[in-house]
Amino acid sequence: MTVASSADRSSSAPVHTGTNRRRSERTPHAAGAWLSSPTATDPADRVEVATLNLSRHGVAFELQSRIPTGAYYILRFNLGSQKITSEIRILSCRAGDESFRVGAEFC
Predict the structure, then answer these.
(1) How far apart are CA 18 and CA 29, in angstroms?
(2) What is the distance between the alpha carbons of residues 88 and 105, in angstroms, rounded to a whole number?
(3) Beta bridge pairs of residue 92
(4) Where are any strands of DSSP class E within 8-99?
(5) Region 89-107: what's the mean pLDDT?
(6) pLDDT tens-digit profile of 43-63?
(7) Burial class (CB in 10 A: 0-12, 13-18, 19+), 105
(8) Which residue has the higher pLDDT, 52 or 103?
(9) Nearest of 30, 104, 100 to residue 63 by alpha carbon
């Protein structure tokens, strides 16, 4: 996984198409992932989530319970043969029919 410098991140231009406020294009990506507190030490404390899409700056996933916006978590998922671990900040958590749709940005 390539880590961008803060100069790279600040120079990326937002993608504005119509009402889309996203900084980068989202790509559908269905995969199992695990969410945990940054301070968790027991692997049993992680929660399985289903990722919906990815972008350079964030991720959307479904979760069975509501989580607070502004909170920080660790997200682990596979992208092809790569295993990705990243801290995320929760931007939105919306109730769906049977789960909550969460939008988060990579830190």
Answers:
(1) 23
(2) 5
(3) 103
(4) 27-36, 47-54, 58-63, 72-79, 82-95
(5) 95
(6) 899 999 988 899 999 999 999
(7) middle
(8) 103
(9) 100
Distance of CA 36 to the CA centre of its chain: 12
Which residues, at least 6 apart from 43, have a Cβ–Cβ distance to it below 8 Å? none
DSSP string, 35-48: EE-TT---GGG-EE
Residue 57: which residues within 8 A CB-CB, separation 6 or more? 12, 22, 23, 24, 105, 106
On whether the CB atoms of residues 53 and 61 are closer than 8 A, the answer is: no
Tokens of 103: 């939008």
Amino acid at 82: Q
